[in-house]
Amino acid sequence: QVQLVESGGGLVQAGGSLRLSCAASRRTFSRDSMGWFRQAPGKEREFVAAISWSGGSTYYADSVKGRFTISRDNAKNTVYLQMNSLKPEDTAVYSCAAGPALYGSILYDSVAYNCWGQGTQVTVSS
């Protein structure tokens, strides 16, 4: 069964904004750590942002800090990624991921997550 579904990707000009959503059908969502990762063509998957189960702790890759904001609504079983001041180098397939309640640097690593969405394409034109 599908547990994570991303939406909100698209084509945007540099400097623009997009808001990604990840709808979860997992019963454990309110206790899950959630993360966003991205993969550009020919590159390895990289960490973008993560949020603790309560939303009280957030983590960001240096490349997006100050431009992207991760948030969650446990009542709606949804996690969001607000992306502002987009750059062409942000172009990638963005995937959300869910895992057990964890804190700290482990959340930067894909091994912390055991459920992945299919991804949504984000393309930033120069």
Protein architecture, described:
With 126 residues, the protein is mostly beta strands. It contains no helices and eleven strands. The strands form two sheets. Strands 2, 4, 5, 6, 9, 10 and 11 form a seven-stranded mixed β-sheet that branches. Strand 4 (33-39) and strand 5 form a beta hairpin. The radius of gyration is 13 Å and the shape is globular. It starts with a strand and ends with a strand. The model has no long low-confidence stretch (mean pLDDT 95).
Q: What is the helix tally? A: 0
Task: Please bin the fraction of helical residues.
Answer: under 10%
The main β sheet shows up as: 7 strands, mixed
Q: What is the structural class?
A: mainly beta
The average pLDDT score comes to: 95
Number of strands: 11
Gross morphology is globular
Could you state the order of secondary-structure elements as H and E? Answer: EEEEEEEEEEE
Radius of gyration: 13 Å
Low-confidence stretches: none
Distance between the termini: 38 Å
Strand content: over 45%
What's the helix and strand layout?
Layout lengths: L3 E4 L2 E4 L4 E7 L8 E7 L6 E6 L6 E3 L7 E6 L4 E6 L8 E8 L15 E2 L3 E6 L1
Parallel strand pairs: 2-11
Antiparallel strand pairs: 1-3, 3-8, 4-5, 4-9, 5-6, 7-8, 9-10, 9-11
